[in-house]
Structure formats: C-alpha cells, structure tokens
Amino acid sequence: MGANALTPPGTRQSAGGLRRALIAGALGVLGVASVLTAQVPADAAASTLGAAAAQSGRYFGTAIAAGRLGDSAYTTIANREFNMVTPENEMKIDATEPNRNQFNFTQGDRVYNWAVQNGKRVRGHTLAWHGQQPGWMQSLSGSDLRSAMINHINGVMAHYKGKIYSWDVVNEAYADSGGGRRDSNLQRTGNDWIEVAFRTARAADPAAKLCYNDYNIENWTWAKTQGVYNMVKDFKSRGVPIDCVGFQSHFNSGSAYNSNFRTTLQSFAALGVDVQITELDVQGASATTYANITNDCLAVPRCNGMTVWGVRDSDSWRSGDTPLLFDGNGNKKPAYTSVLNALNAAPTVSPSPSVSPSVSPSASPSASPSASPSVSPSASPSASPSVSPSSSPPPDSGACSATIETVNSWPGGFQSNVTVRAGSSAINGWTVKWTWTGGQTISQAWSGDLSTSGSNVTVRNVSYNGSVAAGASTSFGFLANGSAATPTVTCTSP
Ligand code: 9MR
Q1: 131 ligand 1 Cβ < 6 A
Q2: What is the rounded distance in angstroms from the CA atom of residue 342 to the CA atom of residue 340?
C-alpha cells in the first residue's frame, strides 16, 4: 500500500482550508479589532459518509436488501450514512423476469422506493450477466438468447427509465485469468453481445450512465484488468456507448488491495469513462486499506463515488470476513472513521460549473439496428413518488424545439432530461438556452456542452449529436442542485 496514500493531494485546498480562508476574508473586511480575536469555529466536518463524500461532488452508497428493510437498526444506519443505493439482488435477471417476458418489479421497486423516499439515488444492478439467470434463460442459446437478453434490457430499463443514476449493464463478462472473455451462454451468442447490450441500454434510457462492472480488475498488473481496459478502449474508439466502469473491489487475501489501484482508476478514466467503486468490502476491514481506497477514488476526478456491499458485517454476503464499516451491532468500526476522515480531508468542489464536465457519453443516442427489441414489453407504471416529470411547451423556432422534464428529484437536487427535436428540416448543430429563477445550479451534464453565466444556461450539441434528421430528436441530461424546475427552454440552430 502506498506510504503516502493517506495524504490528501497537497496542491488543492481542503474543505477546512477553504472555510478558514472564507472566514478570514470576512473578518478582514469587517476590520473590527474585537472580532479579530474571535475564535474561528472548528471545521464543520461532515458527520456521515454521504455528506462527507458530497463535499467533493461524490456519492457514498451501500447495497440494500429488500428483505432487511423491516429492520429498523439496519434502515437507521443506511438512511443516515448513505446517499446512493444499489439493490443487492432485487434488480437482477432472476428477480425482474422470473418467467420469460413476465416482468416483476415488486422487490426492485421496494428498494428503489425506499431509496428515493429517503433522498437517495439508485445504481441499477444488473442487466446482462451469466449469474442469477432464471431457469428459462439458462436453457436458451444462440439468437433466441440474444433476443431474450435485448428484451430483458428493454423491459427493465423501460420500467426504471429516467430514474437510475447508472446501470451495471453488463456484469462479470471477463474470465478470472488470461485476460479474455468468460465462457457463458451469453458469450456463446457471439463476441458482440456486450456492445449489443450497451447499445440497447442507451436507446432504452439515454439518461442513465451505462457501466461495465467486474471484480478483480482493480490491480493494474492483472491480465483481467488489461482485458477489460482493452475492451473499453475499443468501445470508445468505435463509439459503443459506455460511460463508466464499476470496480467491485471485493478485496481479500486472494485478491488483495494494491496501491496500483489508483493507476487503474486513472488509466480507465483517461479513456473517457467515469469510474465507480461499486461493491466494496475488505476482508478484515483494515482502516488503512479502507482509507487508501477512499483516497484512490478522491485522487481521480472521474471517480464518481463509492459503494460498500452491505451495511453491517452481519449483512455481508461474506459476513465471516467482517469486511464492512459497521459491526453486527451497528457500531462504527475503525475503518468507518478512516473513510470519513479521508472524505472530509478532500477538497470541496466549486458550486459554479462552467463547462460540460466529465460524464459525456460517447455514443449516439440512436440505437444500432442490432439493438432493436424483438419484443416490446410494456413496463408497469413506476412507483416512484418523487419523480414528477413535467414539460414546458416547446417553443418552436422553426429549426428546432426543446422540451425539459424532471426525471428524478430528491431533497436539494434533481435530474432532468432535455429533448431536442428538429423541425421540418434536418439540423446540423443546436443551442438550447434557459434561465433559472430559483437559484438552481447544474453540477453535472452529459451529451451536451454546458456553459453558464449567472442563472443563464447554454447547452450546445457535442460532436456526436449535432446532426438531427427532420422531425427526429436527440437528448442531453444534467444533475442540478436546488428545487426541481422546468423553465422555458429555447432551441436555435445555426
Ligand atoms: O451479495 C449478493 C448475494 O446476496 C447473492 O447471493 C449473490 C448471488 O450471486 O450475489 C451477491 O452479489 C454479487 C454481485 O451481484 C455481483 N458481484 C459479486 C457480489 C458478491 O457475490
């Protein structure tokens, strides 16, 4: 492990440092002798993992099991500490499509609703995987399995459309050794099954970040890591829509944490994808190892956040390893404190974004022909109480029009999607503008080039979505702080 891994990046100002500077500035302006002797308040370090991660624009999540939602000790900790939720099993294939083309979102919605009702966002897990396939899917092969996979992705993503922060589209597709693909019924449908899954997913829900998720890809020197890296590089070069890579980070004696994890995260991010730590647990829960992992994420701007795979040790899929941040009695372990301290030492993010940041997916929002669903499942109405899509009437400039809708909201923030539609002629380039009236600020945007000036927002097309055929549409999305709003948006095309 890196000897200096506990040291926050020295060139940036810490949250506490920033607060001290602001206070010193305020005192200086006052220029009153008596206040100069006033004590500067102690740093108001955040006291929960979610709040501490939010200071640097990141999230801190946990896996949630629907079956434990009746346990108040569990939900109290989960609600207090975490602001991102991954359903541990409830959105997997066997849970969501137990019989072919009969979708069931009962358990998935339980976890989703608990999360959203408590102001948390949700990572979807997982759409295409060799594991936890229902019996009917296990027995399929060839083109029948391929179309069942596509149909499954469409069915599940339609139900949760606009509500999921990021989806683990494909899970664990690489072999444990050698750097190649894992043999599975999905792999035997053809090597292109992964990109077909991603193209299908992009078309099904353009607002979700699309992740490839796997374990044992944290160590930069391992062949499996390089295999996945090469796949992502290839996808980016060919425009296959991938936005993020999930590093499960199940560390144990056979797959120990190595300080080159930071190199891995940086290297993947340099390909133009976000990186996320998606299922973290550490055998024995060394406080130092947990701090090192946290600092690895904090050192990489495109590391969006971290998720631990369970709340208390007793909730873990490998509870005998006591790998989590809370013991079986719900007490904070030393690893909890080391993670919290590392998060609190991270630099804060500026609240005024000026340019489209990191998320922008590389893919065209239009589906590839191979991704069109063979069956079009009808999604049951979603149960989210806090999502209230509403659109402003599209002012028609003739060349293009734009519609804004809220696709998710939580206390203090919301996610929106903006659809840009060409008029009766094709357009080549578009600009969408609006003005916030409630002090909202955009923290993250994708599929658009964002610039802001005070409350005025301008979003221009990016390279891959400027050309829109007559009557056709494309879209971009963003996350914002403040109260959800649907201002009047205008669209112009040069
Ligand atoms: O934690 C999950 C456990 O409850 C299930 O029994 C198991 C079945 O496959 O899946 C566990 O979660 C796995 C995750 O979905 C994918 N990465 C590995 C996780 C731990 O096995």
Answers
A1: yes
A2: 5
Go through the chain and tell me how many residues it has: 494
Give the model confidence (pLDDT) of 348-384 as tens digits.
875 443 333 233 333 333 333 333 333 333 333 333 3
Catalytic residues: 279
Torsion of CA 50, 54, 59, 60, to 10 degrees: -30
Choose among 463, 232, 257, 448: nearest CA to 353.
448
pLDDT of residue 5: 31
Inform me whether the pLDDT recorded for 193 exceeds 90.
yes
Q: How far apart are CA 409 and CA 406, in angstroms?
A: 7
Reply yes or no on whether the pLDDT at 388 is more than 60.
no
The alpha carbon of 271 and the centre of ligand 1 are apart by a number of angstroms equal to 28
Tell me which residue has its CA closest to atom 21 in ligand 1: 317
As a whole number of angstroms, the distance between CA 40 and CA 24 comes to 8
Query: If we measure between CA atoms, which residue out of 410, 363, 362, 419 comes closest to residue 388?
Result: 410
Structure confidence at residue 14 (pLDDT): 42
Work out which ligand 1 atom sits closest to the CA atom of 215.
Answer: 17
Rg (CA), the chain: 23
pTM of the model: 0.68
- 369 by DSSP, 3-state: which? helix
Q: Is residue 248 lining ligand 1, measured as CB closer than 6 Å?
A: yes
Segment 247-305, tens digit of pLDDT? 999 999 999 999 999 999 999 999 999 999 999 999 999 999 999 999 999 999 999 99
CA distance 382 to 375: 20
The finding on whether 89 has its CB within 6 A of some atom of ligand 1 is: yes
| 226: DSSP letter | H
> Encoding tokens for residue 472?
């056709």
Alpha helix locations (H) across 118-141?
Answer: 135-138
Q: Which residues fall within 8 angstroms of residue 331, CB to CB, at 6 or more apart?
A: none
Which residue's CA is minimally distant from atom 1 of ligand 1? 317
Tokens of 300: 């990489």
Distance 88 CA to ligand 1 centre (A): 7
